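Protein modeling request. Please complete all fields; requests missing the sequence field cannot be processed.
Requester role: graduate student
Desired output: 3D structure, token encoding
Chains: 1
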Amino acid sequence: QVQLVESGGGLVQPGGSLRLSCAASGAITSIYNMGWYRQAPEKQRELVARITSGGSINYADSVKGRFAISRDNAKKTAFLQMDSLTPEDTAVYYCYADLGVLGRPRDDYWGQGTQVTVSS
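Delivered output (120 residues):
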């Protein structure tokens, strides 16, 4: 059974920082793309950042220059460093990973979500 476990969310003041982690476990044979989406109340889920197996990175325009995504393939973990946070970054953040899994076709897997709240 494949799991993505997220950590690092919480409450932070405007201008502050948080670091999210997403650890994948299970019968994983390959890790392709990893990334983060977020969903704010009454808004659609949006892509925040994505990193490919080759290290190519995409960011949403709203987070460029403030967020940084990285991954540790040996630990099957992705990270999202979030700096200069604003109230508009408040949302539930979901990790996803495009995985090859033993005995299964390649597919996307999702974490349970972690709440990020930016407020004074």
